[in-house]
Amino acid sequence: MKISVRKHLSLVPAMFLLLLLSVCGKSFAVEPAGFPGKKTLWNGFDRFDFPVEEFSVMVIAPQKAATGNPWVWHGEFFGHKPAPDIALLKKGFHIAYMKVPNMLGSPQAVENWNLCYRELTQKHGLAKKVALVGLSRGGLYCYNWATANPDQVACIFGDAPVCDFKSWPGGKGKGKGSPADWKRVMDQYGFQNEEQAIAYDKNPIDNLAVLAKHDVPLLHVYGEADDVVPWDENTGIIASRYRKLGGRIDLIVKPGVGHHPHSLNDPSPIVDFIERNASVGKPRSLPVHRKDPVGKLSATLEPSKRVVYKTVDGHEMYLHLFEPDGCQPGDQRSCFLFIHGGGWAGGYPRMMYPYAAHFSEQGMVCISLEYRLLNNPKGTTVFDCVKDGRSAVRFVRSHAKSLGIDPHKIIVSGASAGGHVAVGTALFDGIDEPDDALDVSCVPDAMVLLYPVIDTSEAGYGNKKAGPDWRKISPVHNVRSNLPPTIIFHGTGDTVTPFPGAKKYQELAVEKGNRCELDIHEGGRHGYLIFDEKLYRETLVKIEAFLKSVE
Question: Does residue 1 fall inside a structural domain?
């Protein structure tokens, strides 16, 4: 037989590549194997339904898989509020669901999930770590499987999740309960009587240490008025215990909302959380946007929760809360609301996290405000930025009890354009959302302004951004009596928001009988506080002294 040496040599590179793939598979993006079963369309994406053992499994495939084949696995109620799934499919994630209803996260349900996991990862090449989505009772499936397989979990998103079956369906706390589902718990978990069920110590709220040890990040979205799965018996306990264990959990609160509707109008926070934590080969941590000392500090901090304070054109707007230790609803704590700068067109709440974190350590409930930015959404104006600031103060004052604050001790602070929004809460009467509770005052009890936009004329900053009606929202042109006690920090070398405007505002405020102090930093450029950590710390001390003087 004649052997072709050239033919066999041509196989060497391919064989070598296969060897590399088998040894270093994690370094290569491998397309998932095709899925079997019935193929249909779901929101424009291929859906496959096939059995694993005797159970029905559904997988929806992206048009192009992301590196490493990341995926999302639903506990229950797949297809309800699908916007996050659609967004993640567009980013290359697969979506999966195993139909094992009425098993309520029981040990047998966990075993069934194990079968599904092995099928999808070993046979079809999906990522070894999966993002879990637990909606309502789906929380029992996700958490119980996660605690049994913590090294296989990238993150958990809980949407009003059940985290203790004694709360729901047991109804042993504040909730309504469900007798039929409570009987299913008894049957599925093999309890002989109710006493055994109540004594069970492996509910998600009891079994968090292993998730904290494996640094599994959590996100819960819940309605504060949920009387089906009460948040304080489920998410509240999870958050408190997980943080004490060193775990990371983000909370998004929907005031006045019950168990329904689920999800968010704008799913971006959910999608960002899953993409950041479940993407393969991407860093989990947030990027450091600013290299100055305060910017670097901001990257290390996280709020205790985010609270929806208004919804505009289907987009939730958030208060980023930093709560002091031991804070409870009904407390009478001072509140410090911070508003970031960025010329009304940029910036983000994280910029003010260091200030909020510092004063929360002093026992205050602190908030960093998210507000609309110019043309985001399209058509947003400086007037809208001001409206958001005024809405936020009204929300805080009208929800003082649930936030644990004294409605008569609200301090508002802002930097640069955020300083303009801050002073606008006291000055710009009539620039309000029509559906705001206008009978609730938006005037704070004190103001702390950091190198603020204080003059929107051509001599100041933002004249063109403010538009032809700039005078209506120029603080220096609207000074009046009966304003809150105010301190302004400003540098004489500021060429962005020129120092003469701040000096003129302070003089006019004093002339009209207001208390208004001006802390002058000779030669200080715009934003001078953030570039020198020592100066930043000294300023915090000055703010503390000012606040003490206005108590």
Answer: no
pLDDT at 7: 35
Asked whether the CA dihedral 324, 550, 522, 426 is positive or negative, the reply is: positive
Average pLDDT for the chain: 93
CA distances from 145 to 150, 301, 535 (A): 8, 30, 50
Torsion of CA 476, 478, 482, 485, to 10 degrees: -30
C-alpha 197/C-alpha 480 separation (Å) is 65
Amino acid, single-letter form, for residue 144: N
> Residue type for 146, please?
A
Average pLDDT of span 273-284: 90
Helical ranges in 223-362 per DSSP H: 235-244, 268-278, 293-298, 353-360
Cα 267 to Cα 82, 221, 271, 342, 499: the distances in Å are 9, 11, 6, 25, 42
17 found inside a domain: no
Residue among 377, 417, 430 at smallest CA distance from 527: 417
Give the Cβ contact number of residue 66 at 10 Å: 21
Q: What share of the chain is helix, strand, coil (3-state, %, to 5)?
A: 35, 20, 45
pLDDT value at residue 281: 86
- Judged against a pLDDT cut of 50, whether residue 15 lies above it is answered with no
Contact status, residue 182 vs residue 169, Cβ threshold 8 Å: yes
**Can you tell me the distance from the alpha carbon of 226 to that of 257, in angstroms, rounded to the nearest whole number?**
7
pLDDT at residue 551, as a whole number: 86
Residue percentage of the chain with pLDDT more than 90: 91
Region of poorest pLDDT, from 7-11, 224-228, 333-337: 7-11
pLDDT tops 80 at residue 248: yes
Give the CA angle between residues 19, 24, 29 to the nearest 5°: 100
Domain residues for 134?
30-278
Residue 69 is given by DSSP the state -
Domain boundary among 245, 278, 311: 278
Which pairing describes strands 405-415 and 333-339: parallel, antiparallel, or unpaired? parallel
The one-letter code for the residue type at 262 is H
**Is residue 190 situated within a structural domain?**
yes
Q: Decide if 291 is inside a domain.
A: no
**399: number of Cβ within 10 Å:** 19
Is residue 18 predicted with pLDDT exceeding 60? no
> pTM of the full predicted structure?
0.91
Are residues 318 and 353 part of one domain? yes
Beta bridge mates, 59: 48, 96
Mean pLDDT of all residues in 531-548: 97
Q: What is the 3-state secondary structure (H, E, C) of 352-411?
A: HHHHHHHHHCCCCEEEEECCCECCECCCCCHHHHHHHHHHHHHHHHHCHHHHCEEEEEEE
Q: In the chain, count H helices and then E strands.
A: 18, 17
Tell me how long the chain is: 551
